Amino acid sequence: MKLSLIWIDKTKERHLLELIDEYLHRLTKYAKYNVLELAPARNQTERTAVLETEAKAILNVLTPGSYKVVLDETGQQFSSKAFARFLEKHQIASTKDLVFIIGGHFGLSEIIKQQADLMLSLSSLTFTHDMTRLLLSEQLYRAYTIINNHPYQK
Fold first, then answer.
1. Burial profile 33-44: b = 16 or more Cβ within 10 angstroms, e = fewer
2. What is the Cα Rg of the chain in Å?
3. How is the chain classified by DSSP, letter by letter?
4. Is the pLDDT of residue 45 over 90?
5. Cα(first)–Cα(last) distance of the chain, in Å?
6. Selection from 146, 27, 5, 4 nearest residue 84 by Cα
7. Domain map of the chain by residue range?
8. Burial grade of 110 (CB within 10 A; 0-12, 13-18, 19 or more)
9. What's the pTM?
10. CB atoms within 10 A of CB 154
11. Over the stretch 47-104, which tens digit does the pLDDT of each residue have?
């Protein structure tokens, strides 16, 4: 199974980028992954136009048949162990591509949300997009340490 992390724009906070890179580097021990940083909508300020442009960019890179996990504050919350079971279930089921999608400044369009196989919330708190990337990266690494009985998660 390959993990794909799709998000809009580059991570702007250098110290968060370093931590994201660290967790993703650690993840290579357990899983194949790729990160797609899509360009944000340029020269547009209207929310609807931005969401539509970014939705088209996301749809253009999605692999047919992929399992799409959309990060959204209204999504389902998991404990770290339940998230690990979710990933393990998809490994066992031979899911080819498990895609995590994080929106841009305005979030994600309804088109993307409607295509989600799962809406996932990392917390009932609100985080910046850069922080969300870090939290997702850390939780992916943590989940794989749980699956593989690595002591990090204890």
1. bebeebebbeee
2. 15
3. -EEEEEEES----HHHHHHHHHHHHHHTTT-EEEEEEEPPPPS--SHHHHHHHHHHHHHHHPPTTPEEEEEEEEEE---HHHHHHHHHHHHHTT-SEEEEEE-BTTB--HHHHHH-SEEE-S-SS---HHHHHHHHHHHHHHHHHHHTT-GGG-
4. no
5. 25
6. 146
7. 2-153
8. exposed
9. 0.95
10. 7
11. 999 999 999 999 999 999 999 999 999 999 999 999 999 999 999 999 999 999 999 9
How many residues are given for the chain? 154
Asked if residues 23 and 145 have their Cβ atoms less than 8 Å apart, the reply is: no
The closest of 123, 81, 131, 77 to 102, measured between CA atoms, is: 131
Binning pLDDT at 50, 70 and 90, where does residue 152 land? confident
User: What are the Cα distances from residue 150, in Å, to 26, 131, 144, 146?
Assistant: 12, 25, 8, 6
Fold of 2-153: Alpha/beta knot (3.40.1280)
Q: Which two tokens stand for residue 67?
A: 């399992």
At 6, the amino acid letter reads: I
Structure tokens belonging to residue 63: 């692999």
Q: Which amino acid is at 19?
A: L
